[in-house]
Automatic annotation (TrEMBL):
UniProt name for this protein: RNase H type-1 domain-containing protein
Species, as recorded: Solanum bulbocastanum (Wild potato)
Domain RNase H type-1: 1-88
Pfam family, one: RVT_3
Signal peptide coordinates: none
GO MF entries: nucleic acid binding; RNA-DNA hybrid ribonuclease activity
Length: 132
């Protein structure tokens, strides 16, 4: 993968392909990529070098009832953790149950399971210079 968008497209394509193969027809798909969401639902034009994969995804969407939701990256920590784990390891990584996750993945999943909120904090520098 050469860009994060290509990686996100491949992940979405793989998930939808899995759902179709296993007869899941009602799917809520969450992504922390607003760019990806807008390309797939045709709000934004797809760059020419990426056009093939989004078109494949759009064809799969016609075969299912899919709702695509944009979520903030804080709500997508487990997926990001697993993706980063896959990038860091040379061999293929598969996790089929809770115990197989690395300890940090289990911690993230437990936080989510217990509905402990992620807080997004934005700081602002206050200028105390007063020219009086």
């Amino acid at each position: 993968m050469s860009t994060s968008i290509q990686a996100e497209l491949m992940a979405m394509w793989s998930a939808l392909h899995y759902y179709l193969r296993h007869d899941f027809h009602y799917v809520n798909l969450e992504t922390d990529s607003l760019v990806l969401k807008n390309m797939i639902i045709r709000n934004w034009r797809i760059p020419w070098d990426l056009v093939e994969r989004p078109e494949d995804i759009q064809e799969m969407l016609k075969q299912m009832h899919v709702q695509i939701h944009h979520i903030f990256r804080e709500a997508n920590q487990l997926a990001d953790f697993i993706a980063n784990t896959a990038i860091d390891k040379e061999e293929k990584q598969q996790f089929h149950n809770f115990i197989q996750l690395p300890s940090m993945g289990r911690r993230i999943l437990n936080t989510d399971k217990h509905q402990i909120p992620s807080v997004r904090v934005k700081t602002r520098k206050i200028n105390n210079n007063t020219n009086e």
